[in-house]
Amino acid sequence: MFRQAINRLCFSLLLLLTAPQVFADYSWNFPEPVTPMALDTLHVHNKFMLIVAVIFVVVLAIMIYSIFKHRKSAGYQAVADKAPSTFSEIFWTLIPFIILLLIDFVIMGIPAYHSVVMMEDTRNESHLVLKVTGSQWRWQYEYMGNTDKGIEAGIEDAKGIKFVSNLSTPQDQIDGTVAPVNDPEKPYLLDVDNRLVLPVGAKVRILMTSTDVLHNWWVPQFGSSRLAVPGFIRETWVQVEKPGTYRGQCKELCGKGHGYMPVVVDALPAEEYKAWVIAKKEEMASADAGADKEWTKEDLVAEGKAVYEKNCAVCHQVTGAGLPPAFPAITGSKISLAPIFGADGKYLPDSHLDRVLNGKGIMPAWKATLNDTEIAAVITYERNALGNNVGDVLQPSQVKAARQ
Amino acid sequence: MSTTTVAHHDEHADHPTGIMRWLTTTNHKDIGTMYLTFSLIMFLVGGAMILGIRAELFQPGLQLMKPDFYNQLIGVHALIMIFAALMPAATGFANWMIPLQIGAPDMALPRLNNWGFWLLPPSAILLTLPFTLALFGIGDGAMATGWTFYPPLSVQGGFGVDFAIFAVHLLGISSVLGSINIIVTLFNMRAPGMTLMKMPMFAWGWLITAFLLIATIPVLAGAVTMLLTDRHFGTHFFDAAGGGDPILFQHLFWFFGHPEVYILLLPVWGFIPQILQTFSRKPMYGYKAQVYSLWAIGALAVVVWAHHFFTAGLPVPALLYFMYSTMAISLPLAVLFFCWIKTMWRGSMSFETPMLFTVGWIILFGIGGLTGLVLADVAADAQYHNSYFVVAHFHYTLFAGGIMGIMAGVYYWLPKMTGHMYNETLGKWHFWLTAISFNLTFIPQFFLGLAGMPRRIPDYALQFAEFNAISSVAAFVLGLSQLLFVYNIISTVKGGKKATDQVWEGAEGLEWTLSSPPPYHSFSEQPVIK
């Protein structure tokens, strides 16, 4: 019996000894940290895990020893605890109490304090400010510009750049009609059309909000995770120290698309970041110019199909059939068929344009998410495809006017 | 209330038979049996739901269900397991055993007791009805917000949320009634000579639970009522556009939600030492220390709630306060663990099924408690929060720490309740299958969480596939081995080897002085405790 107990003990110790190797292999632990915060989190986590593993093994060993030694089948007679003198009872219960007091508030408590202070210090030393907006079920990124420190550091100012980031995994894989494809460049459920791009080494202060329900912006390798609350601004920060592509997911249940709003961040060295900023600004300028020109119906429908499938199909379905009762059909719907503008040239309440711009109920407002061309294109597409044939064309310039 | 007024109807043991016996009963044993049966049925219902989820998660890609239905299953699984399986099981034991353990003829408020039980089946129906309605094309199914009801998602949801709100109201009323009954019983109907500090530990665990329930259930009821008025009557408690705040709901919900964890566990912490002393054949160690620890945990339970949403953006002082106060819970809990192990130490132990479950419970609940200590760290919590790490953690506390404890209690008291011994071999098989498959289900989930898999997602990236596959297979073994438990209980109720009055060699306490099964009305004359 005793030998068995020793064997068990050895086995437990073996487990403990292999633990550091387990910690070294990141697929069994947090992924490789690339920000100071994630590094700190990993250290704190490893240290605490080791402490609790030691406590667990020691207590388990005592218990297992007792289980094998003090059993009736081994002929052990119960030895009653002496009538507890109050002193010894207090003494013996105080010992674990004091050990834990030390572990909780000194060994664990002090590093934990420093981590919290570091995590919440979003402003000091920050180089640029980024606004992250969660919506069902996509992320929107807006560069709010450099801070004084960022200007000093010579980081290219990305102020004004603003885009939406959608899951880019093909819909048939998501629906389960075909098996998920294993593509390391575009990992299943973890790839987007427009990646967030951040300069390596810069401390980025992130302002977080939401347009509808709670979301949570999380990249495991950054160690930061913050709730996006509609109507409020929450803050966090990241400072990516290694160039690369980092992937994460929304981690607050936000409806049926919760599993389908990944975060993908490209961390680029200063030069490449600068090139990206310049290219992105040009792209946005040409999109703005597009809003003023006269579009043909064919071009709008073609553009609108892409916008629709990226943003609308998740609820209203690729075919436009919707998922009633929660998500109504586009095909043959009253709103899609009714006129948009009244006699005075202003758009009507509850018209197609009103609904897309301002939303209602579960339907989100798209005016902050999509640009004039995209809104004009998607409305024209919905009215002239998906089984509808209204025949009218909504020009981007009309959307632009409607916003005023 | 004097003891004579409640004892007078003990004379007639006749009662209606058939369905009327159960509908109209005011007998604590009958009501306890109903609670336990209801709990077992709902445990199987909630388990079937989660097996559907594990089947979906067996491999990447959607195979069985749409994300919306998946979200409905996770939330209703949790509500059923917490409110309709674990809590009624603990209340069932309270009804059966508290009067027997304190030498009282019945619970103090028998009619209220009956009503408390009969509120449960309607609320279970309210919770699950939207699934059935959706089959007939009415509505879009049950609440799909997770069991936490967080607005604005729950404001957006369909009428499943309203059903769940009313179900929670009913369950809450039932719990508060049960708690009032237990407090009144314990304060007024203890056998002469049984001072509070001579009360059995199970009674202590329940007394504190009852106070926690009365303190926190009204807050939950208020919060979900505010949600209801936000949904239908134009209020803006949780809507920033009208001056409200979605985070307010989280504060209110977890002011209830965290004590709820202890509400589920304190009754178990009560009878675990009793089982330990029975099978160690020596009195429990540190009775007073345990009682004080239970009180300390009860008090700390209501002041640590915000550690459930550290990532919501709380101010630094609040983060620090909730972190340190959460860590402080480990202090009284460590005292309890110490007392439990010291009770075993130098005992003369034997390992019948209740003892196996108890020892397994101590080890596995230990894992739950220790990972909870790590979770209290705010910075690391940013990584753990809402990841599978948390899922694994709270299943170690609630499945291992809650349900496996309840199972230990079932095997311990079943011979007393039915008069028959259960099948020991089957019981041991049940234990080993449960313990092993439970670990195989949830250990992979710790690693999934660390690797970055969020909870409540219907489909996942390919790097999470292997661990999910292991977890799903083990979950099915875990689920199916519970059929052994059900079979064992049913065959014990029907017949089997006759149990002695003492049942267990080392059993001590008033319940073991009665016959097995005890008479329909017991302790018509209260025993005197020296």
Give a brief outline of the structure:
The complex is a heterodimer of chains A (404) and B (530). By secondary structure, chain A is an alpha+beta fold.
What would your notes on this structure say?
- The complex is a heterodimer of chains A (404) and B (530).
- By secondary structure, chain A is an alpha+beta fold.
- Chain A has three domains: 2-120, no CATH class; 128-284, Cupredoxins -  blue copper proteins (Immunoglobulin-like, Sandwich); 293-403, Cytochrome Bc1 Complex, Chain D, domain 2 (Orthogonal Bundle), CATH 1.10.760.
- Helix content of chain A is 43%, strand content 15%.
- Chain A contains 13 helices and ten strands.
- In chain A, strands 3-2-1-5-8 form a five-stranded mixed sheet.
- In chain A, β1 (128-135) and β2 form a beta hairpin.
- In chain A, α1 runs antiparallel to α2 (36-69), α2 (36-69) packs antiparallel against α4 (109-120) and α8 crosses α12 (372-384).
- Chain A is elongated and about 95 Å long.
- The model of chain A is unreliable at 19-26 (pLDDT under 50).
- By secondary structure, chain B is an all-alpha fold.
- Chain B has one domain: Up-down Bundle (Cytochrome C Oxidase, Chain A).
- In chain B, α3 (28-56) packs parallel to α5 and α10 (246-280) crosses α16.
- Chain B starts with a helix and ends in a 36-residue tail after the last helix.
- The chains are: A alpha+beta (404), B mainly alpha (530).
- Chains A and B meet through α2, α3, α4, α6 and β7 of A and α4, α10, α12, α13 and α14 of B.
Could you say which structural class the secondary elements and strand pairing of chain B correspond to? Answer: mainly alpha
Question: What is the number of helices of chain A?
Answer: 13
Number of domains of chain B: 1
Helix % of chain B is 55-70%
Question: Quick one: CATH superfamily of the largest domain in chain A?
Answer: Cupredoxins -  blue copper proteins
Distance between the termini of chain B: 22 Å
CATH superfamily of chain B: Cytochrome c oxidase-like, subunit I domain
Instruction: Write the CATH fold name of the largest domain in chain A.
Output: Immunoglobulin-like
Pick out the low-confidence regions of chain B: 1-11
How widely separated are the two ends of chain A? Answer: 85 Å
Number of strands of chain B: 0
What is the subunit organization of this protein?
heterodimer
Largest sheet of chain A: 5 strands, mixed
